[in-house]
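Researcher: Structure prediction, please.
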Amino acid sequence: MKKLILPLLLLSSTLGFTQQLGPNVSGNIETTFQYLNEDTLIGAVQPAEKTVLNSYALVNYSNKGFRGGVRIESYLPHILGYPDRYSGTGLGYRYVGYSHEKIEFTAGNFYDQFGSGMIFRSYEQRQLGIDNAMDGLQVKLTPTPGLTLKAVYGKMRYAFNNRVENSDGLVRGFDGEIDFGSFLGLLDSSKFKMTIGGSFVSKFQNANHPDYNMPKNVGSYGGRIDMKYGKFFLGGEHIIKENDPSFDNGYIYNNGHGTFINAGYSMKGFGVILQAKSIDNMSYRVDPDAILTDLQVNFMPALTKTHTYNLAATLYPYATQPVGEVAYQADLFYKIPKKTKLGGKYGTDISVNFAVAYRPVRHTTGYNLPGDSTRVTYKTGLFEKSDSLYYKDFNIEIKRKLNKKWKIGLKYFHFEFNNAVNVVTKDATGIIYADIAVVDVQYKINRKHSLRLELQGLWTKQDKGNWATALLEYNISPSFFFAAMYQYNYGNPVANQRISYPLVSTGYILGASRIMVSYGRQREGIFCIGGVCRPVPATNGLTVTFTSSF
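Model: Predicted structure follows.
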């Protein structure tokens, strides 16, 4: 109880603060509390404290051009799966800033991104335990409509131990963008629209290594273009990273490159998007010895669909490989018109997605031969892929409203997953082949009451065998919801490992506030968002989450 008193006092004082400042105050509160049980059957452990808590309270204040904010954080201790360097209660984020016509600046903590993020992205993803907020200065200039200039300078957040601990190294960056739709009126009346941009980012770290000569400054630079004409669009970005020996690449001196291309066509009832990505040696960290998701300066966009159904999203999710991959993705959307034989009264939505990623071809340069000390170990070209498959995902979804009360959705997924590249299981080696089918049925009882039933099945001859999942939801609009989920690994080749995972939950929504209580088992797995992943340990117990915005 003593550990809970301080965050509660901080929370109450924060709420009192918001009431005094009036309409120029905004913010949010988020708390996750768990009481955990030991469960040897699924490998769930109980911490010495038995309970864990992550809590955040953010308050922003603005008045005319001035703004500022603080965020209080508590990890007492942190929820399982979070980095071990998160502990205690204190100030996790603070900033002040000013905006006036053509200039905006922020001093303190801030988040930002250049282009797609391949060269620089500072962001927070609480569900993954990622927060690489910058601590320094951010300046944005708009000298004329359509022209935006940005500069960032500072250190990146690394850990939290009753206060924020930043990296030793520095990150410096500049980005410029021109939108010709409004710049000097060049394309004001044209159907053709175009935006171009360029970035330069440099990191400084006083790095040392007993065996290698480590560069203290490592730069990266590149450009991007986005074009649109009518219903067509085409965009691309290319980044070059100078030699950056690190733990990720085995301390080699190769340069890195990243290319991302996006094209498509969209009209009412039909759309197609084609994407391609070629990256090599693009791990870019403030500290070259950092691992996992620590101190990443950049972000590799994922060319895989973000799945929401449990079995598809958590058993074999793909993490982008910054050390190198050649990837492609295609999305097709089509709505069969309503009041037709195939479309029915309300029409039928069909979406098809295909994604694939390969290891790049690498031509060795003869490194390690006598007299060769360059440590440039290979050469590779753009989109030069090998036959080594990393990941393949084909999925199709059909959704149809049958009448005013019934809706149905049918989904099929086929995965080919290289467990040697993305290790998600100890029970399989090489390529895992998996097929998943989902039936999603919704029934509207009346204006406020509705039911949703979700049935999922996964079939694989590798790993732990077949799975089945059933989910039933009951909603009372706009405030209450109840759910029960049952997951069963019925096809596990080891009989005593055919484990079931029951989970029940309920919640209440009031305006911008939401509280949810759940109890049961959750299996071990990998949780991914946008191609960035973290392991999630098995748990058994009570979870209470509360969120509120004001």
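Model: Confidence is low (pLDDT under 50) at residues 1-22.
Researcher: Thanks, that helps.
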